[in-house]
Amino acid sequence: MDFILQGFLKAIDLLVTGDAETFSAVYATLVVSAYSIAASLILGLPLGFCLGHFEFKGKRLLRLAVDTGLALPTVFIGLVVYAFLTQRGPLGGLGLLFTLPGIAIGLTILALPIVIALSATAVEGMDRKLRVTLISLGADRRQLFLGIVWEARHGILAAGLTAFGRVLTEVGIAMMVGGNIKWQTRTVTTAIALETNKGEFAAGIALGLVLLIIAFSVTLSVSFLRKRY
Amino acid sequence: MGGLLYEISGLRHIYGNQTVLNIDRLEIPQGVIVGVIGPNGGGKSTLLKLVGFVEKPSTGKIVFKGKPAEPFAPQVRLQVTLMPQEPFLLKRTVFSNVAYGLSIRKDTDKIKERVHEALAWVGLNGNNFAGRPWYALSGGEAQRVSLASRLILKPDVLLLDEPTANVDAMSSQLIKDAALKARQDWATTLIIASHDWQWLHEVADSTLHLFKGRLSGTGRENILFGPWEAMGGGRWCKRLPDGQRLTVPQPPDDTSAALIANAVLRAGIGETTSTALPAMSGIVTRLTLDNSSGDVLVSISAGGLPFTVALEQQQLRQLGIYPGRTVSVCYNPADVTWI
């Protein structure tokens, strides 16, 4: 039990003294999370809206594919992205392997089905009378889209939050595509895995605390936004 | 009244494989109040959605102010507004709900005053209600907020789908008054679908009767449903709960409804009748002034069935008709049409 307590104490020390290696991992985590969440929201929200709002041929099949994407193993995504980004791969020339943008691509693939599926469910769950109301009050197509998204904002926020939680805690993709390079592509989760393997529980717990603080801050902000709007 | 507002031709609307609306031709002039009467599932809401340009008809053409129009067309989007049967408010405050239409038009000059004024039209105090969230309203208040958010637009066309169906008497009266204000103050054309046919006849310049998706007269006719029993000799009847029989010609099928035009009924009212026409005994339940013709619509309950007979005011005085009086309703079976 002592090593756990010592771990907590060291964690506080690392955070208070601003340990450079710890903060490098925090920085990498925040960058890849921000990139991937931004990309998955930009791509996923319109797709989720279309999937939830419109009726079209093949919709059920597409929904099934998106739902399957929710269960994609992260190591599989890591493997595929690695295969594409490696020198011999089709996108090898871009030089994205073992870089933060490379990890962000993998994390976007992980988050995209979550954003699409949950925002489609949020839009689908909207009352049918909403569309009638918005159109009859004079909304054009763009205003109709924005109106429905705004009305489904709580569900969409939940989609973003769920995707963020998944991205923040991901290890497999970051490890395979990022390579866990110190000062470069080492994220909080890959650092925890490494430190634990080395028997450095204190560093691991410190990084775990950082993850918790980030998650708590984001959840608190979202909760504030929900109350405010 | 101005020129033609709507010219509808060959209008068909299909949900799944069922035709829910089928109107060959319909014209609605500007500045009128049109009442739409009919049973549930008759196509009233569908008609309002189509002329409100919320949905596109499966086939057919709707010409609005001389130009063919469809949903999102600029000439209709900002001029026609529909209030659905069940109140639906955006998940925002009352203020934001009422202001929504103006804000998307980017017409936000003195918006606070205008929102408070619109709320006052429907009997709500802006100081008390504007800041309330959508969920903190009763059904009647929500319906009135819904109407205020349309009235603030001062629309050319206001379509009301059962505006008083789910509200108490006070809200109902406030909604009726506010809707009529639109026509008085801004010459708004009103198309109102309602079960409250007495009110519709009082306020409407004309009424349409929709039955099974088709226009079936003006709403002053009596529509009677089966089951129909064969009496022999090519005659059929409907047996009323009090033992009286309503005689009709042979129906085309079991689901057919008999339409009895009020012109046939008009002559036969009175305690006794000397004609050889079949007579139904009933009690006068209500008298309603028909705004469009000046006639009085006499509601009669005969054997538990509601009948309506239109009488000129002079005839009414001569016959001494008043609610509670027992009368006979006569009709000519040969004039019964099937729909």
Please characterize this protein's 3D structure:
Chain A has eleven helices and no strands. Chain A is mainly alpha-helical and 229 residues long. Chain B is an alpha+beta fold. Chain B folds into two domains: 212 residues, Rossmann fold (3-Layer(aba) Sandwich), CATH 3.40.50; 117 residues, RNA polymerase II/Efflux pump adaptor protein, barrel-sandwich hybrid domain (OB fold (Dihydrolipoamide Acetyltransferase, E2P)), CATH 2.40.50. In chain B, strands 6-7-8-3-9-10 form a six-stranded mixed β-sheet, sandwiched between helices. A four-stranded antiparallel β-sheet of chain B has the order 2-1-4-5, covered by helices on one side. Chain B has a four-stranded antiparallel β-sheet with strand order 18-17-16-19. In chain B, a hairpin with a 2-residue loop joins strand 1 and strand 2. In chain B, helix 4 packs across helix 6. Chain B is globular and about 70 Å long. The two termini of chain B are 32 Å apart. About 3% of the residues of chain B have low confidence. Chains A and B meet through helix 6 and helix 7 of A and strand 6 and helix 3 of B.
H-E string of chain B: EEEHEEHEHHHHEHEHEEEEEEEHEEEHEE
Average the pLDDT over all residues of chain A and give the rounded result: 90
Number of beta-strand segments of chain A: 0
Q: What is the CATH superfamily classification of the largest domain in chain B?
A: P-loop containing nucleotide triphosphate hydrolases
The major sheet of chain A is characterized as:
none
Major sheet: arrangement of strands of chain B: 6-7-8-3-9-10
Question: Which CATH class of the largest domain in chain B applies here?
Answer: Alpha Beta
Backbone shape of chain B: globular
What oligomeric state is this? heterodimer
Query: What is the count of helical runs of chain A?
Result: 11
- Coarse structural class of chain B: alpha+beta
Q: State the name of the first-level CATH class of the domain at 44-180 in chain A.
A: Mainly Alpha
